[in-house]
Amino acid sequence: MHNTINPKILYFGTPVVLISTLNEDSSPNLAPMSSAWWINQSGMLGMSKKSKTVENLERERECVLNLPCEGLVGAVDKLALLTGKNPVPVAKANMGYRYEKDKFGICDFTPTKSQIVKAPLVKECPIQMEAIVKEIHAFDSPHPIAAIEVKILKVHIEESLLMEGTKDHVDPEKWRPLIMNFCEFFGLSQKLYPSRLAEPFLSRY
Ligand SMILES: Cc1cc2nc3c(=O)[nH]c(=O)nc-3n(C[C@H](O)[C@H](O)[C@H](O)COP(=O)(O)O)c2cc1C
């Protein structure tokens, strides 16, 4: 039997992304988010317009999208309920958010120089993608949300995650993304079934 419900959120499970951007004084900001999807060499990011990240993206037009693995969950959680925005927007303050200038320091992540953009890579994340902002779209929501279209310029990956004998293929058996599932952290289980889609993809790309 199915019920009809009115859930407050529809976070059915997506990978966590740590977005690093530059503040106006050139210090780095780092924010966890998970409303992200990818197609070809582009991504779409859903972020609150009240975040420091969106303010920085509007001004700097670039960022690094760092993908944490399951093992980094504790460090990622330290970034929750923090904002680089000062003063803290009222709605966030009411939820218990506080201002934090040094987001990297608070979770012991290491900012490392990127190759193309000015925002730093997060050294501990196995995957880091340098990106530029193509467009910022309005998003239909009761809350002020921006849908930020980014183009990926450079992908850095920990070598051990590559498929053996290849130089550009990420091995899905080895990559363990951190998943946000209705505001809780999850990992992936094992592969369930050999995918028919994987075969043509592997031979084409
Ligand atoms: C795991 C996780 C996922 C999140 N996903 C999103 C998201 O997809 N979009 C969003 O606007 N905020 C998301 N948040 C909340 C932001 O991290 C929060 O708004 C934060 O204050 C942004 O930081 P900033 O203001 O310094 O940019 C998420 C938080 C956590 C911990």
- Helix proportion: 10-25%
Q: Regions with pLDDT < 50 over 5+ consecutive residues?
A: none
Which fold name corresponds to the CATH topology? Pnp Oxidase, Chain A
- Provide a count of the helices: 5
| Structural class by helix and strand composition | alpha+beta
Number of strands: 14
Count of structural domains: 1
Strand neighbour order, sheet with most strands? 3-2-6-11-12-5-4
CATH superfamily: Electron Transport, Fmn-binding Protein, Chain A
The main β sheet shows up as: 7 strands, antiparallel
How big is the Rg? 18 Å
Mean pLDDT: 96
| First-residue to last-residue Cα separation | 42 Å
Bound molecules: flavin mononucleotide
> Oligomeric status of the shown chains?
single chain
What string gives the helices and strands in order?
A: EEEEEHEHEHEHEEEEEEH
Overall morphology: globular
Give an account of the 3D structure.
With 205 residues, the chain is of the alpha+beta class. It has one domain (14-204): Electron Transport, Fmn-binding Protein, Chain A (Pnp Oxidase, Chain A, Roll), CATH 2.30.110. It has five helices and 14 strands. The chain has helices at 52-60, 73-77, 90-94, 103-107, 198-204; strands at residues 14-15, 17-22, 28-33, 36-39, 42-48, 62-67, 82-83, 98-99, 111-112, 121-122, 127-138, 145-157, 179-181, 184-186. The strands form four sheets. It has a seven-stranded antiparallel sheet, with helices on one face. Strands 1-13-14 form a three-stranded antiparallel sheet, with no helix packed on it. A two-stranded parallel sheet has the order 7-8. The radius of gyration is 18 Å and the shape is globular. It starts with 13 loop residues before the first strand and ends with a helix. It binds flavin mononucleotide. Flavin mononucleotide (FMN) binds next to β3, β5 and α1.
